[in-house]
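Action item from last meeting closed. Structure (131 res):
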């Protein structure tokens, strides 16, 4: 690993605060949190004591919170759909705006957003309801 990569990664394997300093536009952040699945991911991470969960635990929590409105899928099929969408769509989008770090080697997902993201979550949470 080169020195630059080591500087961007903290001792816990996640990005250091310096690496997370961003020039990501507010529009990209709003777009990232504008999806129910991504908000469920952020809420699940933010509600844990260290804001880190295993990928499998995160899938379970997101699947429990987000219901498939199109069809009445069996729970296993619903969880598999959530798992696939998280891996291919939602986590990459949240990583792109530096709100989460997903370490596929360890299976850990961490909330690394700052005050802006926390403020957005607090504002949006009042409108998100479990139905």
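Sequence:
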């Amino acid at each position: 690993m080169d020195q630059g990569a080591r500087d961007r990664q903290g001792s816990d394997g996640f990005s250091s605060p310096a690496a997370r300093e961003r020039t990501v536009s507010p529009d990209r952040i709003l777009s990232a949190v504008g999806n129910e699945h991504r908000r469920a991911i952020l809420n699940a991470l933010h509600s844990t004591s260290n804001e880190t969960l295993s990928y499998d635990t995160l899938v379970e929590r997101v699947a429990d919170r987000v219901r498939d409105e199109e069809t009445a899928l069996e729970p296993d099929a619903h969880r598999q759909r959530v798992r696939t969408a998280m891996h291919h769509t939602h986590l990459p989008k949240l990583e792109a705006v530096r709100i989460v770090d997903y370490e596929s080697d360890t299976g850990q997902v961490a909330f690394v957003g700052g005050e802006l993201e926390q403020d957005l979550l607090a504002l949006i949470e009042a409108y998100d309801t479990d139905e």
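Note appended to the action item: Strands lie at 52-54, 100-103, 108-111.
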